[in-house]
Write a structure and sequence with these properties.
The structure holds two protein chains of two kinds. The N and C termini of chain A lie far apart (72 Å). Chain A has an eight-stranded mixed β-sheet, with helices on both faces. Chain A has one domain: Rossmann fold (3-Layer(aba) Sandwich). Chain A contains nine helices and eight strands. Chain A is α/β, with parallel strands linked by helices. Chain B has one domain: Porin (Beta Barrel). Chain B is built from two helices and eleven strands, in the order αββββαβββββββ. In chain B, strands 1-3-4-5-6-7-8-9-10-11 form a ten-stranded antiparallel barrel. Classes of the chains: A alpha/beta, B mainly beta. Chains A and B meet through α1, α5 and α7 of A and α1, α2, β6 and β7 of B.
Chain lengths: 297, 220
């Protein structure tokens, strides 16, 4: 009997094929969104000059369904701006990073809502499934489906492709790049990536210091370095030179070099870390870069 | 992205931080099986923990100064990777009072998942050891060396590190049939850990990682 138990355990172990995919996602949960009243850790706080009126902040839910799913997942979304003007406004679709939720990224989204001038551009943000108050479990396909759900909503409000700007930060650069490169509900006119990663394989190689194949640990297909090759829209890349999480040379610079579309610009920010570009360079210089790219290219 | 993705990086260290296998060769025709558990220390939340990597090993004494061995990395198998180590331990110098015995262990570390995901790492460990007491317990210190043969990483980026060395110190409690082994190892003290996503615990702060291991050996 012992022999059979042992054999079963060994075979089960050897055929389990664990991957680290589930560990990619943070899955931070919330019971309510507090936005300006959020007291948890954030990367920075904006002063009152960046205040957004309550009437311009809209929290609502969307139904998101990946192609292989039978049921939709309810996710939470935030639109900063006048919904009735989406049909004529330019909108920044902000894809946040892996850490935490929309409360954590509220300051960043609010900052973008001050690009050029207050509420000059609409800003859309969602919590991916499993994040914040959004239901479900995070998956790679879910990331894309969730952002696409936001694009469907924007499209239903009259947004056209030429007024959609895609902005991704850190992990959010994956759906931002994917939905700019491939056919989804909308085709953004511009792509902006802040501290992008190249691929899961690069993370593994950076982490181990060795040239290890990514397949050893993950089945994730997330690969901005390859995806960016099919992006043709104007492309903006910004990255901190002191990024100790996603190295500027092994991640961001690779993504930037693989782009071969119509226009690209890069901004390597000295002394800035992974989450400190805005505070290192200053809010207004950052907004000027963002605004100039959106309006001039 | 930072918090949970650390597991991606720490798990890669499966492949670079198993404990030393045989510091002292087995007796001629003696066999042994060994299980070891341990890994690099990391900060995980408020705690400092070793990553629990598990390896199993079989050794055979070809003669009293040469032992052949093979190891399987159980943790790697759970990730669907076949990782084996094949090597020998050769004693090249006998102990002379306080002058330690010396052994060397050349090893081939082979990892295979599929035709596109496979690696071979040569290793060379050099150990100095002292036997003492009635049970011939063992104190040892050594240097394990890993060699990365690839010149390029993903997307054609130059592979910066080709030599990873790991100073180690350990103690083996012996009796007739069983050995119990404790080992500490500084993994890659020559490589910065500041751009890695994991908070490794190391005496060098910005470089390398500290690994701790426990091993249990049954001799036949």
């Amino acid at each position: 009997m012992k022999k059979y138990i042992l054999i079963t355990v060994v075979i089960t172990g050897l055929t389990s094929c664990f991957t680290l995919d589930d560990n990619l996602f943070n899955k931070s949960k919330l019971t309510e969104y507090k936005l300006d009243n959020y007291s948890g850790d954030v990367d920075f706080h904006l002063d009152n000059s960046f205040y957004i009126q309550d009437t311009m902040v809209h929290l609502f839910t969307l139904n998101s369904k990946a192609t292989d799913e039978s049921n939709a997942t309810t996710i939470y979304a935030l639109y900063i701006g006048d919904i009735s003007k989406i049909a004529t406004d330019t909108v920044i679709m902000y894809c946040h990073g892996n850490k935490d939720h929309m409360d954590f990224y509220w300051q960043r989204a609010k900052l973008l809502a001050n690009t050029k001038s207050k509420n000059r551009f609409g800003v859309m943000m969602i919590d991916y499934r499993g994040y914040g108050m959004s239901e479900g479990k995070p998956t790679e396909d879910g990331l894309y489906a969730d952002v696409d759900a936001a694009l469907k909503w924007l499209k239903s409000k009259g947004l056209s492709n030429d007024r959609l700007v895609m902005y991704g930060f850190s992990m959010g650069t994956a759906p931002a790049t994917k939905l700019s490169a491939e056919s989804y509900s909308m085709k953004p006119s511009k792509l902006m990536l802040e501290a992008p990663f190249a691929s899961a394989e690069t993370m593994i190689q950076d982490g181990s210091g060795l040239a290890m194949p990514g397949d050893f640990f993950t089945t994730l297909k997330i690969n901005n370095a390859e995806e960016i090759k099919t992006v043709t829209q104007p492309f903006f890349w910004i990255h901190g030179e002191a990024d100790d999480f996603l190295n500027i040379d092994t991640h961001g610079a690779v993504v930037y070099s693989h782009y071969s579309g119509t226009y690209k610009e890069s901004h390597r920010i000295p002394a800035a870390g992974h989450s400190t570009i805005q505070t290192t360079m200053g809010f207004q210089p950052y907004l000027k870069l963002v605004g100039d790219f959106i309006t001039q290219h | 992205m930072r918090t949970n993705i650390l597991l991606i990086s720490i798990t890669t260290l499966i492949y670079a931080c198993s404990p030393g296998r045989y510091v002292k060769p087995l007796e001629k025709k003696q066999q042994a099986v060994n299980v070891s558990l341990g890994g690099p220390l990391i900060k995980y939340g408020a705690a400092t923990i070793p990553i629990p990597f598990l390896t199993a090993n079989y050794g055979y004494g070809i003669d009293s100064t040469l032992t052949a061995f093979g190891s399987a990395n159980i943790t790697a198998a759970l990730f669907g990777n076949a990782q084996v180590e094949l090597g020998v331990t050769k004693q090249v110098l006998k102990q002379n009072k306080y002058i330690p015995a010396i052994s060397i262990s050349p090893v081939l570390n082979i990892i295979y998942k599929n035709k596109d995901a496979k690696k071979l790492y040569p290793q060379l460990a050099i150990n100095a050891f002292w036997e003492y007491g009635k049970h011939k317990n063992l104190i040892y210190a050594g240097l394990d060396n890993w060699f990365e043969l690839s010149s390029k990483r993903a997307y054609g980026i130059n592979q910066p590190n080709h030599w990873i060395f790991m100073p180690m110190i350990g103690h083996s409690f012996n009796n007739k049939k069983w050995n119990f082994n404790l080992e500490a190892k500084i993994i890659a003290p020559n490589i910065s850990n500041e751009i890695l996503v994991v908070d490794y615990v190391t005496p060098f702060k910005t470089h390398g990682a500290l690994g701790v291991y426990f091993g249990c050996t049954r001799k036949f």
